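Example with several molecule types.
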Amino acid sequence: MAQRRWRLSSLQAIIGTIPLIGVSVGVFVICIIFSILWSFTSSKLFPNFDWVGFENYDRLWQTSRWIVSVQNIWLFGVLSIVGNMVFGYVLAVFMDQRIRMEDTFRSIFLYPFAMSLVVTGLVWQWMMDPNLGVQAAMQNLGLEWFRFAPLTDANTAIYGVIVAGIWQGTGVTMAILLAGLRGVDQEIWKAAKVDGIPNWRTYLFIALPMMRGAIATAFVLQCVGVVRVYDLIIALTQGGPGIATQMPAVFVIQHITNRQNVGMGMAAAAMMLAPIIVLIAIRALVMWRAAAQEKRAAKLAIAAEERERLEAAGIAAPVAAE
Amino acid sequence: MTDQAISSPAAGMATDVAGPAGPKPKRLTASRVGVYAFLIIAALFFLIPLWVMIVTSLKTLPEIRLGNLFNWPSDLTFDPWIKAWTTACTGRDCDGISPGFWNSVKITVPSVILSVFLAALNGYALSFWKYRGSELFFGLLMFGAFVPYQVVIYPLIIAFREIGIFATLPGIIILHSIFGMPILTLLFRNFFGSLPGELFRAARVDGAGFWQIFVMIMLPMSVPITIVAIILQVTGIWNDFLFGVVFAGRPNMPMTVQLNNIVTTTTGIREYNVNMAATILTALVPLAVYFISGKWFVRGIAAGAVKG
Amino acid sequence: MEHSVSIKDLSLNFGHVRVLEHLNLDIDQGEFLVLLGPSGCGKSTLLNCVAGLLDVTGGQIFIDGKNVTWEEPKDRGIGMVFQSYALYPQMSVERNLSFGLRVAGMKKDEIDRRVARASEILQIEPLLQRKPVELSGGQRQRVAIGRALVRDVDVFLFDEPLSNLDAKLRSELRVEIKRLHLRLKNTMIYVTHDQIEAMTLADRIAIMKGGVIQQLDVPSVIYNKPVNLFVAGFIGSPSMNFLHGEFTGGASPKFVSQGVNWDLKGYETLPSTGADKRQATIGIRPEHIAINDEAKSMPVTIDVEIEVVEPMGSDTLGWVRIGGESVTFRVASEIDLQVGQKLTLGFDPARASVFDGNTGERL
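Resulting structure tokens for the full complex:
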């Protein structure tokens, strides 16, 4: 009796999702497989299937350009995400003080996100220009000691990138966290007020832990942005001075275009995928545990409810006997 | 006497009891001043680059060389804007950034329509017509939302080249539709998932099929989420640089790519004012979308990122 | 006689969860059948199976003698009314009513004729050009019923149609649905968790729990002779009083509990029940308990002291304790009850129910 009938409507649904199937399997499975396969070949300008084992990976990790890229993305990732989140939350808290012109402030904090990273990069390149930028303007005002031209020095260039990144992305973090703050149960605030807990403590120790969803959202958004950072680097520093602001995303594109070393480029791409896979695996594990816990909790709740209902009906005894 | 007190207790209180009465007077406390001071300083940090962009684009080159970055131009000129739009050099061509603008329009409009339509269709099917495997495809798509573009870009170049759409307008449009699909599908799936399932069942009892329900019932209902999706896509695609530079092909280079070319093309002297005018021009479309759409924009970002 | 709807050995699993198990149900032409039960009992699931909105795992469904188990919903000859009304928000009332007919490609004058008739029956003619958002809850539900009406079908399915309405509207529309049934004489299957709706509307009630029909009968039998503890406890408000003790069957049935030794002469034990002594629960409805003078003429009496009094307006509930267990009785509101008052309660064993202490089945 397990015979299933063929429904015309389900066929329609499959036809309707052909683009979905094509993209999900064609791009996010098959393309990834090809990328990984080619990372084990000696492909140069064009792809081939001459297997070279882990040679590309070996060479990759001996390439200073790549090692600098990896160091940069960690530094950039950690600093810009931490900066973003802290600055964004502080802004959100200040925005939450029933201020006037909230919409105006929100627009000001958020507009950079609407602009292209190329635009962001070019503006900050100009701002950080050593001869004509902010530094020069301040020195013209008599502040001879003022220094703000990080992009010219290989040691500080990455911090210039971080400033531009924070400028572009903090508004979004603020908006998401502010929405999270507003989503916290109003009675929590009332309770804290009645209990005489200082405002800053409420924000830090009561509200913040209750906004896990908003924080996770902002965090994920930032992480995806960090891994993909390409436009900003190209516009702001082109990876320089020298290789000081190289990033993995730039490294890969350069190797499959100008540098004509597809094999190494694909090895780098595969390395970029690794942290994502680890993150997704961790997430799946957490979700799986949460689901198991929820199931158990739900089971207990249902059992309790059932017992209550039966007790109300006066038939607790026979159930207990079972 | 007691009778009177009961009949007008408020009047009795007001005359009998001294001390605070009525609304608490509002005072400008130090902490309020601190709040506004912080917000204004933060606002300056966000606004100064915009200000610098604008004043630089209106200055003459000699004035720029004086190094007074923040000053309003003493010798106001609109020539940089005209030059940026019509004659600035992007690599070999010197037609300004206007061809890039039109290329971006040609890329953005069809990409937005196609990607939003496909995402709506996906979200609808995934919400109401689940079949064996549909959740797996959705899971793969969500995985795709986190995959760095660089991981799939090279195989896509090869595939597009094989099909013959690499470096063509249709190619870049399809590419944008592919990479817009994960977030937009999530957006529409969450939206349709929030609709009462009974609506769909009622339509089934009324005899409507897959496409009829989609076109006649669901699409007309999804106007708000479609607006959010369009805002997300217009800004996203307009601001794209990577796909444009790799996939669009020379004749179709979008505005962002041409902007970067203008700035990096140095024929003798760097024309900072022209560069900034071109930068503003490039940012105008997404900024207009942002300021017109207001809160929808925020909703779009949050909705796109929150998993349902 | 041909059954209007016939469900044979129907099963439905969601994964490993068995929602419906080997369910059989025959519904006569023109019958008003109510599926009643707590949430999660499978009543809505059963209705959705009849409608064709869920694929069954096993068994068959017949409507008007035709096997429709594999048919599309539209081809089953059913109309359906949903709890949330499920009106298409962007269409006017008229277009909501005619949507199904337009999809089917029916001729315009026939569509107009049917819409006119349905809106006449439901008195929604003035609303035809409005959008659903411009209607009140009651009006929306009328339109939803109208959508089923225009289909001109023999079987109407109602999925908790009144649950989203407030109490007053609910009772108004309840009467209206009853009128509609009297006028149209369609077969109606009506899912609800509201026992008053069930009692007032139904020709027969099917009480469900855990995907199994517990009892299928006319309302008065369900109320007075529940087949098991679940049905007894589910039907009636305030719910039936239960006392736990020992029951002896046979010619002169007895019920013994803490401080209670009742001779249940007049209680009709089922033929299957033996004469032996066993653990049992006796159930007495609050309104079947008499007090004082009236109680003294009853076969069973007991003296008690009132613990709590709940005046309900139309009547008054008194709470007492019998053998450590809480018991409610209902009296007319004119009778003055005081906490601490001593009085005599009495009931007729013929109106009581006794259930097996282990299985919960009626004895």
